[in-house]
Automatic annotation (TrEMBL), chains A, B, C, D:
Alphabetized InterPro entries for the sequence: FmdA_AmdA
Record SUPFAM superfamilies: Acetamidase/Formamidase-like (SSF141130)
Species annotation: Saccharothrix violaceirubra
Protein name: Acetamidase/formamidase
Gene Ontology MF term list: hydrolase activity, acting on carbon-nitrogen (but not peptide) bonds, in linear amides
Pfam short name (any one): FmdA_AmdA
Amino acid sequence: MSIEVVGLTADPERLGYVFGGREPVLTVKPGTVVELATEDCFGGAVRGVDDLPSRVCTFPYLNPVTGPIAVEGAEPGDTVAVHFVDIRPVRDWAISTTFPHFGALTATHTTAMLHDALPERVWRYEVDVDRWVCRFQARSSEFSVELPLDPMHGTVGVAPAANEVIMSITPGAHGGNMDTPEMRAGTTAYFGVNVPGALISIGDGHCRQGEGEVCGTAVEAAMATVVVVDLIKGATTPWPRLESADHIMSTGTARPLEDAFRVSQHDLVGWTADLLSLDILDAYQLVSQAGLAPAGNVVDTNYTMLAKFPKNLLTTTPYADIHTRLRATATTYLSQR
Amino acid sequence: MSIEVVGLTADPERLGYVFGGREPVLTVKPGTVVELATEDCFGGAVRGVDDLPSRVCTFPYLNPVTGPIAVEGAEPGDTVAVHFVDIRPVRDWAISTTFPHFGALTATHTTAMLHDALPERVWRYEVDVDRWVCRFQARSSEFSVELPLDPMHGTVGVAPAANEVIMSITPGAHGGNMDTPEMRAGTTAYFGVNVPGALISIGDGHCRQGEGEVCGTAVEAAMATVVVVDLIKGATTPWPRLESADHIMSTGTARPLEDAFRVSQHDLVGWTADLLSLDILDAYQLVSQAGLAPAGNVVDTNYTMLAKFPKNLLTTTPYADIHTRLRATATTYLSQR
Amino acid sequence: MSIEVVGLTADPERLGYVFGGREPVLTVKPGTVVELATEDCFGGAVRGVDDLPSRVCTFPYLNPVTGPIAVEGAEPGDTVAVHFVDIRPVRDWAISTTFPHFGALTATHTTAMLHDALPERVWRYEVDVDRWVCRFQARSSEFSVELPLDPMHGTVGVAPAANEVIMSITPGAHGGNMDTPEMRAGTTAYFGVNVPGALISIGDGHCRQGEGEVCGTAVEAAMATVVVVDLIKGATTPWPRLESADHIMSTGTARPLEDAFRVSQHDLVGWTADLLSLDILDAYQLVSQAGLAPAGNVVDTNYTMLAKFPKNLLTTTPYADIHTRLRATATTYLSQR
Amino acid sequence: MSIEVVGLTADPERLGYVFGGREPVLTVKPGTVVELATEDCFGGAVRGVDDLPSRVCTFPYLNPVTGPIAVEGAEPGDTVAVHFVDIRPVRDWAISTTFPHFGALTATHTTAMLHDALPERVWRYEVDVDRWVCRFQARSSEFSVELPLDPMHGTVGVAPAANEVIMSITPGAHGGNMDTPEMRAGTTAYFGVNVPGALISIGDGHCRQGEGEVCGTAVEAAMATVVVVDLIKGATTPWPRLESADHIMSTGTARPLEDAFRVSQHDLVGWTADLLSLDILDAYQLVSQAGLAPAGNVVDTNYTMLAKFPKNLLTTTPYADIHTRLRATATTYLSQR
């Protein structure tokens, strides 16, 4: 098996702050392995506990994404698949912070209140890739604890529909900043194509994050990431979907959070009905008893919920089993690296 | 008093479907009167009860706006003022419709449900500008009733911040499709400037609409509209504001609807504190007892609420009394027309 | 015309803090005029700017309501009408306050955040019934301004369905603490009956309030109030409705606020369809163009929106024109007082 | 170790449909094992696919709970613990249904819309306790699949505060119908005490449910359940909490769903800060990176979210390690049964 492998650095000219409206920095054939570098959501400007992001970062130059990558032959009405082969922190430290008026447990610009902002605080995590852990160090006490690495990308998506250009921090039907821990190595993400080439961008690597990304940032890190990019002609995907070894997953991104839940469940019910040849009410019933519903983010300009269904209940494979083929490509690639 | 008056037609090359990302079609000096034409939200394609919008309109070519108009000297950090002098339906008919999965009392793409869409139905209103009425004719019975005209623009705004390009049907901090009946002749709208020239676009004229725009569309009409466009240097306006003869008004646009309410009230409390030299809690108290809070739209991709405060309780005038000067310009213009 | 008039004091044994679960303190025939006294929402314990409610009030003994009043013959499936004849502050002062973690622009117990509470502050208004004004006095400056009186009751309702007992501060399908300025003299309120006698309670008088009751309290006052209580056999009323000289109004109480909006508009569309013999889509259309949608409260444990429709567009009268008869009773009563 | 064991049947006189307002049917000492029977949410009235719940059930006699059980010595300001030892379906069948205007993907009474209800449909599951599975049988096709049993109780709680009486289908700060799959055997649930004796009621057994309980009902079954009931004097618990072998969990119940999320995360952050002696921002940070956030229910009159934190990161045990002692009691009980 011959695999085409290309690289994509995170040089400033390859970073964007929006989805849509940008020319591709790389064009690949379906099935290509892309080794890409991503910066952290602060653009690398926060390096220690005294680097308050409100001082060292400049809106709207936050949350850089690497790309966009055009996929040859991708047209509106198709689906692109992004299979994560490897996501690996490149520094021995990572950063998390509170940020004024951002997060789930603070007044924000849309949940507008008369409170002053919560204090802005930076946490610097030590990252040990060999031991596959990162270390939380409390700022107000000596407490410290190791957490397992579970690297993932908060921001993955394609150019939006309707000629829109959307900030990289805003998730939506095009993907973007969904901030779900499920976007880890071994997972395939599916996106509906809105423009020729699809124009995939990836960024916002996290050493790990909790569900909901409660304080607004995860353990943010620059990443060396490997993906396989592929194309499924003629398959529509209205909202981003994920597939892991064990689950198919629909995402929903909206406000209020119950609408994000509804979107994700509605998509999963329809998808499951298709895969099991059930009518919609039977699929609704089965998803209701067998599904999982974790939060993605409840902090960004839109919220994201996931709806998960166990693959062992399925009798057919989604998207003609592309996930299995992409895993095979990943295995070959890793064995040759 | 000499007034500069320019015209702007609704030719296809002057219509856009987004805010942001477009070059100006007209550049004017502050204080200029602009006579502009706008198409209806269907682009004029729905002319009778058999023209179902899902058949005769093509997404995303909905809700055309005329513009953008650049204002000389407008820079980020400034505010532009758009004073509505006259809004006049140009045809003797207007259209309202339900639209599949759009509206407040139907499942939508984000309030996703398993229901089939409600029936798509078109209502054609007779418009009599001389008598200043439009006529509702029921589709399922002989019932018919005249409603007073109260023409307004659903969509008014500027280019968004952060290099975003946003569909004209989506309201936000840049204005856009707020769909409030307060955007009528005699009102001044204020927008914070995000890009040089501000880039004002206007569309979506309504012969009238109820608060909330419940079914998703108003009495939609092409308009001959006259505005005065002006510039307030060095004044920031975080969310669109309105001023009428009797009220100052803050808008808030967000989901869920209570966040739209919070944004509008938060802005009004701060604005009132400034205008009355009150501390924020005193302003919070006074707005709580004297304010009004009507819905704008509860159907679009974002919802809009208004927060109104009576001007007779104010001791100073907002934006250095530009509203009074714009009304004087309007009076002069109308007397010379 | 002979009118039966009975009195009801606000003695502690006639005050309750819940809807449901209490025996009637008065039983009246339909058509009876009731002269009743109500305490303010603080139970009269806050008398000056140093009486912080969190110190002088004791949860759950807040927001006392006078009643319940049983209506002879009222059974589940009927509707009771409460027509407000007169609402008159009984003291020459009234109180408004912020309260920790209560209000629209603060973190609350359900919109839970890590912020400390906003400062608790008391405003004491001078009330001049002769001149029909109350005076706002800023706490942090010399600013002072008179506001017109517009007396109303924040809390009016009946015993809930399903054997529930609900705190008087919580609005719902049974009415309760809807906090809409529309509940003023001249208005008739309609409630569906859930238990024999209906069990009406009234409290929480306001000298006036803005829409939304933004800071969480209005200009709170003890009231001398006169109502006519009546019964409409066999008429169901799923959510509280109001009728004034000019409008019929449906209320909706729920969270998020768009659900309160949906409930109110859904009820108004159905009601209008009935009154105009329209099918539901024609009524949806007409309400969308002719209706108003002000906020009631956006601060209580449930939010309330109103949906208003102008009576001059109706061809029949709601509830067999009981509003007109109740106004006649009110006129007779007032002429004899 | 001597264990006191008492039984409690599900006779009609021991079933209630509310939390609060009822006398205890059993009073136990702290540490008592209670073997109790519960009916399913339909009161056993739905036995086959032709028993539509809207016909065979009568509102408000839905969702019966067994109890209330008074705990000797429990006073407001204390916490009661309910440890689930065993939950076992008692019939060889179980039921799930859609129900008109109830569920996450349908218009409801509060998310009010003009759609007709979705079809009402009943699914009858075969339950095999020996093999610990239940079988889904599609209604519109031959498809059938086994799902593992994961028995739990949807409804567990205490009498509410403020003299309220709340329907058993409504979750809140008192617990009630939270509908989380985490309420399974091996879990301890903690509730703040609002009235003397606490007055615990339990019902709504599910053979299993997905997160969110999307269609509105789970695999509903009558249960033979064993709990240990205990008392923690002087410990307050503002919202229900759970503890399993691996996680501590806070619940939040509110609308919109982001408020349920906020409540649960706010409680978990405070709880974690206490257990790790962290300041609140350090706890906010740690929970953000290490927590899980699954949906409980997104269908009931209030929504429930969970916030989970891994116990292996804790340095102290919650509630003085009562969970370990209750598990020991459970082990002893099971060895003696």
